[in-house]
Amino acid sequence: MAKQTDPRQQPGPPVGQWLSAVALGWLIPGGGHFLLKRTGRGMLLLASVTVMFIFGLMMRGAMFHPESGDLLTTLINTGGFVGDVCSGLLYLLSAWFGYNTPDMPGAVHDYGTKFLVTAGLLNILAMVDAYEIAIGRKD
Amino acid sequence: MPKMNLSHFETALLFALITSIVLGVVTKRTDRDRLLYGVYTFVCFLIALFSIGWAMRLGHG
């Protein structure tokens, strides 16, 4: 009788197959797609994430920094920081150029903060897509 | 960098548009499906935007 293997126990695809696409996708939004010759989709992702991030900056959104305290504070600030960092080069450039707007009251600033985090979260989706293309699960 | 001042509606619309584009691009497998899903997501955002907006307005009286 053939022995069936649990698909969850199968080894994942080799790291070398997807690492460069995912890493480039983090650094440059859509970069993984460019590397994998999906230029059109890469352009759309690059434009969307970059526009989202730049609008966040123009609305003077605040960048999150990891903070410890009660659970909610830790969760919001660490999660927000991860979201910001996932924008890759956009985040690094804004940090290097000294962008550091304090968290101010006001709807526009608040939207800006959300735009900055969402740009990173959308880039995570793009990185996951690049990963799936790289391992052949998607066209 | 110039400062941007948009209304709630304009900002939410912009957010919906950009998010819909990315969701459309990364979710489906063919270009047609991607386009349809992007439009579908955008329409869902608009419905939620107007519904929640009216709910808040009526809730506040």
What do these coordinates show?
The complex is a heterodimer of chains A (139) and B (61). In chain A, 64% of the residues lie in helices and 0% in strands. Chain A has helices at 15-27, 31-35, 39-58, 71-85, 89-96, 107-134. In chain A, helix 1 (15-27) runs antiparallel to helix 6 (107-134), helix 3 (39-58) packs antiparallel against helix 6 (107-134) and helix 4 packs across helix 6. Chain B has one domain (17-60). Chain B has helices at residues 8-27, 31-60. Classes of the chains: A mainly alpha (139), B mainly alpha (61). The interface between A and B is medium-sized, with 25 and 18 residues.
Q: What would a concise description of this structure say?
A:
By secondary structure, chain A is mainly alpha-helical. Chain A is built from six helices and no strands.
Provide tags for this entry.
heterodimer, A: 139 residues, mainly alpha, 6 helices, 64% helix, B: 61 residues
> Shape of chain B, please?
flat
Rg calculated over all Cα atoms of chain B: 15 Å
Strand content of chain B: under 5%
Question: In one word, what is the shape of chain A?
Answer: globular
Number of strands of chain A: 0
Global structural class of chain A: mainly alpha
Number of helices of chain A: 6
Oligomer: heterodimer
Number of spatially distinct domains of chain A: 1
Distance between the ends of chain B: 39 Å
Mean pLDDT of chain B: 93
Note poorly predicted spans of chain A: none
The helicity of chain B comes to over 70%
Number of separate strands of chain B: 0
One letter per element, helices H and strands E, the order of chain A comes to: HHHHHH
Number of helices, where a helix is a run of at least 4 consecutive DSSP H or I residues of chain B: 2
Distance between the termini of chain A: 35 Å
Describe the protein's topology.
The complex is a heterodimer of chains A (139) and B (61).
Chain A: H1 15-27, H2 31-35, H3 39-58, H4 71-85, H5 89-96, H6 107-134
Helix pairs in contact in A: 1-6, 3-6, 4-6
Chain B: H1 8-27, H2 31-60
Helix pairs in contact in B: 1-2
